[in-house]
Amino acid sequence: MIEGSRAAFSPPRKWRPSLSLVVFLVLASVLALPLLSLYFLKVYQNQLIQQTEAELIAQSAALAAVFRREVESGIPPGVALGTRIPPAAQNASAEPYQPIWPRLELAQESALPRPESRPPPSPADPAFVALGMRMMPDLLATQNVTLAGFRLLDPNGIVIGGREEVGQSLAHLPEVAEALQGRFRSALRQRISKHEQPSLYSMSRGTDVRVFTAMPVIARDQVAGVVYASRTPSNVFKQLYEQRGKAALAVLLMIVPTLLIGLLFHRTITGPMRELIERTNLIGKGDRTALRPLRHHGTSEFARLSQSFLEMARRLNTRSSFISTFATHVSHELKSPLTSIQGAAELLREDVDAPTMDDEDRRKFLDNIIADAARLTSIAGRLRDFARAENPVAVGVGTLSGTIAGLRAAFASLDIRASGELDTPMRLSEENAGIILSNLADNAMRHGSTAIDISAMRKGNLLLVRVSDNGEGVSPNNRTQIFDSFFTTRRESGGTGMGLAIVRAMLDAHGGAISLVESGHGAAFELSIPLADAPEC
Q: Which residues contact 139 (CB under 8 A, 6 or more apart)?
């Protein structure tokens, strides 16, 4: 039956991740997120592409200015130029600056194939060929420093300056055709390399493309030519290698906070939780030393949880010890009258078979049986009262004035005097208050008291009630035991030793307490009872 109940309350057996695994996965995801975004979203590669485009724009603008000056100073007015650009179109806005911003993005642009140059329908004008020859030193000097490729095109898209394709036409390329109409255009094209690249470069898509820009040259309000520039963006891994110091610092700045977060999780959650689980196992095996506080509580919520759990375990352990001791006392108290009843009954049964007793002996044995049965009945009643005291049914509101009236009727032989704040409402029903005072009055009578003095005084959220008598008092040797179950010095007069234990259990159940106080004569007890309007603990 126990195994079946345990299985009913046990969770189904299936794999569940541990808290440490969850924390590890979260931290690993946080650590890998920048790397994944760098690899899949190409954020850094896009930045390199736009940086390359911006550099080509700046370099082409400088060469276009030189090209314009050469056209205006070296090209005769009779030489035909390209598309006419009205002055209003050249300066469309009122701003004094006309910046050209990079716009290429690897995620949005598709790399166009690299078409071959074509023979022109007619050769370039000799004036433009001469212009290209004059600017070649400028192109080579710029290319040697920037590592970019430059071609100068005449108004018809024919190459007049550059290391390759001189005399060929590039007018069929979309970006060149756009520039011949007076508009800047850039494009991503597939890169054709003469050298084999390291295998590591293949992980970066940016190494397979080349940035091309076509900058129109406007002179005499016409398109006089195009500066066609190209360059391969810097490889992301090469860039990271060149900036390895900064990259290592960045990685370190990611790893260190991640480790600190993991240490924080271990210190505040996983560590205390594992220790609490170990304590649970030790407590289940009966190790009472495991009831001590945890070494580290972590968060405030976990501190409250562990404190509540250990307090519950401590109470259950105390309760278990109390039940064990209580059962031992009960069996001891019941054993004496049961043995006496059994012995008397056996003697009476033997006398039936062979009569040897006179009527006086039979009556004596029957009186013993009746007395012991009455004692068993009294013990059973006290046990019932004790159980009721620990788990009171009527938890209401009452006053001492109403309780004392019933107490005087039940103990008419006692002179009961009452004073103080007897009408103060307390969080204790009059029925339960009557049980408490009745047990105190019965205890006083058994110790020779003829009078009881009850006084009440309000103090904070408590009602302090002092109950004193004029009996024999409590000896110093018995002061520490009077509230223990079944402890009595009047067993021969029918005392069960349960009266004060019932009083203490009843008060504990209502949040109150009882203590023995010093008195000049007799016994004196102080009861603390919560007031009706006091906050719950």
A: 63, 150, 152, 161, 162
Cβ-contact 438, 410 below 8 angstroms: yes
Report d(CA 36, CA 45) in Å as an integer. Answer: 13
Indicate the CATH number of 299-375 among 3.30.565, 1.10.287, 1.10.3470, 3.30.60. Answer: 1.10.287
Distances (CA, A) of 213 to 46, 55, 83, 92, 205: 16, 10, 19, 21, 20
Q: Which residue has the tokens 């920048």?
A: 34
Rounded to whole angstroms, the Cα distance separating 133 from 129 reads 6
State the fold for domain 37-86+102-242. Answer: Beta-Lactamase (3.30.450)
Q: Choose among 305, 294, 293, 299: nearest CA to 264.
A: 299
Residue-wise pLDDT tens digits, 291-308: 777 777 666 777 777 778
Q: Which of 454, 487, 476 is nearest to 329 (CA)?
A: 487
Nearest Cα to 121, choosing from 156, 74, 77?
Answer: 156
* 371-380 per-position pLDDT tens digit: 778 777 766 7
Q: How do 222-231 and 209-219 pair as beta strands?
A: antiparallel
Kind of pairing between the strands at 222-231 and 524-530 = unpaired
The structure tokens listed for 163 are 């290391």
Distances (CA, A) of 357 to 130, 361, 366, 370, 371: 158, 6, 12, 19, 20
Determine how many CB atoms are found less than 10 A away from the CB of residue 252: 10
Cα torsion 374, 379, 384, 385: sign: positive
If you ran DSSP here, which 8-state letter would residue 498 be given?
A: -
Which token pair is 58? Answer: 């700046």
Report the alpha-carbon distance of residue 48 to residue 52 in Å, rounded.
Answer: 6
Instruction: State how beta strands 415-420 and 451-459 pair.
Output: parallel
d(CA 322, CA 299): 34
DSSP string, 385-415: HHHHHHS-S----B-HHHHHHHHHHH-TTSE
Of 74, 158, 83, 164, the residue nearest 123 (C-alpha): 158
Domain ranges of the chain: 37-86+102-242, 299-375, 394-530
Query: Per mean pLDDT, which range of 222-236, 283-297, 325-339 is the poorest?
Result: 325-339
pTM beyond 0.85, yes or no: no
Token reading at 512: 């109150």
Report the b/e string of 19-32 with b at 16+ CB within 10 A.
ebeebeeebeeebe
Among 225-229, 338-342, 371-375, the range scoring the smallest mean pLDDT is 371-375
